[in-house]
Design brief:
The chain is mainly alpha-helical and about 260 residues long. About 60% of the residues lie in helices and about 0% in strands. The protein is rod-shaped and about 140 Å long. The two termini are about 75 Å apart.
Length: about 260
């Protein structure tokens, strides 16, 4: 069993690259505009004025009255804004690397599997944060941010309607990016499984299997071969004795050697 290094569906991979490029660049633009706090606090206050969620002044009130400071909900935190910006920059860089490696035929399914598991995880955190709850004020609990569950026409301040639409768009782009990265995972696993044709080519090119293809019966001196017995006998039989002729007898006498006698 071996792991395939080729893609079974290169056209699907190309299509995913195109969708990933559009979603990643859009996310980078939207999160770059939103950083560091273009509309996060505005939408938080607007929802508080409408009674949809807690009020950001709760934090200031806790500090002023020496009370335990409640933890800022992730959906309204600066951590989420910075996280979104960082992962969009990172994903854009990884996309460029993937394209270059694909052109050089170095982007293998196994590498893709590990990379996209990580990308799926970090984008899932972003989706979880953007759709997070706000329960720091028990009077106005919120399971989801109001701009995702309601129309932007309900804004308390009309100037925030544009920011509401931007927040909706950012969440939609994040979900699309998450889906694209998640689709890469089963696609990579599918390409890791070698096809029947690839397994046959692997067997044909394997040096170990090529050595096994030469059986012991193919040996030069194998007794099982029809011609090997005579050939081996011809090779290993001692050479015939030199025939004795008068001339040979004369030369032997000169050298005091008589055939058939010992010195």
């Amino acid at each position: 069993m071996f792991i395939s290094k080729t893609w079974k569906t290169p056209r699907v991979l190309l299509g995913l690259f195109i969708v990933e490029f559009c979603s990643t660049v859009a996310a980078l633009a939207l999160f770059g505009i939103a950083a560091p706090d273009l509309y996060r606090t505005r939408l938080w206050k607007d929802g508080a004025l409408n009674g949809f969620n807690s009020n950001p002044n709760v934090i200031v009130y806790a500090y002023a009255n020496y009370r335990p400071v409640p933890k800022v909900p992730m959906v309204w935190s600066s951590f989420l804004t910075n996280w979104n910006l960082v992962i969009s920059v990172l994903s854009t860089f990884i996309l460029l690397v993937k394209v270059v490696m694909s052109v050089m035929h170095l982007w293998h399914p196994l590498l893709s599997l590990f990379v996209h598991i990580g990308l799926t995880a970090i984008w899932a955190v972003s989706v979880y944060g953007q759709a997070g709850s706000d329960h720091i004020d028990p009077r106005t609990p919120s399971d989801r941010p109001w701009y995702l569950t309601k129309s932007c026409d309900v804004v308390f301040n009309s100037s925030n309607k544009h920011y509401c639409n931007m927040a909706k768009g950012s969440f939609a782009v994040t979900v699309i990016a998450l889906v694209v990265f998640a689709v890469h995972i089963p696609l990579s696993i599918y390409s890791l499984i070698p096809s029947k044709l690839a397994r046959q080519a692997r067997r044909a090119s394997s040096p170990d299997l090529a050595m096994k293809a030469v059986s012991p019966d193919d040996s030069l001196y194998s007794p099982n071969r029809p011609w090997s017995s005579g050939a081996a006998q011809q090779v290993f039989d001692p050479p015939p004795k030199t025939p004795i002729t008068p001339r040979t007898m004369a030369f032997n006498k000169l050298s005091n050697v008589v055939p058939g006698r010992k010195k």
